[in-house]
Structures are given as C-alpha cells and as structure tokens.
Automatic annotation (TrEMBL):
<dbReference type="Pfam" id="PF11181">
    <property type="entry name" value="YflT"/>
</dbReference>
<feature type="domain" description="General stress protein 17M-like">
    <location>
        <begin position="10"/>
        <end position="104"/>
    </location>
</feature>
<protein>
    <submittedName>
        <fullName>General stress protein</fullName>
    </submittedName>
</protein>
<dbReference type="InterPro" id="IPR025889">
    <property type="entry name" value="GSP17M-like_dom"/>
</dbReference>
Length: 112
C-alpha cells in the first residue's frame, strides 16, 4: 500500500529489512533525514528499525503537545492513528495503515 497526500509519501513494507531499504531509497531521491519516519505496531520494534535505518520516529514535534500527552492515555491503535494523521493523512488512511501495522508490517512516511 502506497499513498501520497499533500507532499507526504507513505509505504507499507513487510519487515524491517525492507523498511531500511525504503529509507535508503527515499534518501537517494532527496528526502532529508528529518522528514523520514518509521512506524511499527510495537514501540521497541519502531525504535530498532528507526535506529538501523537512521530514520525518525513520530514525536512531539510532529504531533504537538496535546496529542503527545493524549497518547499516554490512548490504546496503541489510537496512538498510531493519531501519529499518522499528525503527518497529514486522513482518518480513513490512518485506519487503513494501522490495520497493516496490526499484521506486523512497517510504515515508512516521508514529507517534503
């Protein structure tokens, strides 16, 4: 599943290896480090993939203070959807991507 939304690019890949390859590909096409994000359903997996791929995690800068605080009280699925929408995707797109993450896949998002 690929998508482009208002200068945001998203791609779902099957595993961490493919996520690292996708991040490298995005860098080679001109995306900056600060604008490439990795997201997996498991937080620790997100951390590991982001470290290996030299990519970012979606944080307070992207979400804003309110959503970051609200995420402390949300389910993981709700938190993931909030992170995805904070980067310019619709609720419907966030829901579809979150379902892919539930299946163990990895989401890469890049912004211009």
């Amino acid at each position: 599943m690929d998508s482009t939304q208002l200068n945001s690019y998203a791609k779902v890949v099957d595993n961490g290896v493919k996520a690292v390859e996708e991040v490298k590909q995005l860098r080679s096409t001109g995306y900056a480090y600060d604008n490439i994000f990795v997201l997996a359903h498991d937080e620790k997996r997100t951390d590991r993939i982001a470290d290996v791929a030299n990519a970012n995690e979606i944080g307070i800068k992207e979400e804003g203070m309110f959503d970051s605080l609200a995420n402390l009280f949300r389910s993981r699925g709700d938190e993931l959807r909030a992170k995805i929408t904070s980067l310019g995707f619709t609720d419907a797109q966030a829901d579809a991507y979150e379902k892919e993450l539930d299946l163990g896949k990895v989401l890469i998002i890049a912004k211009r």
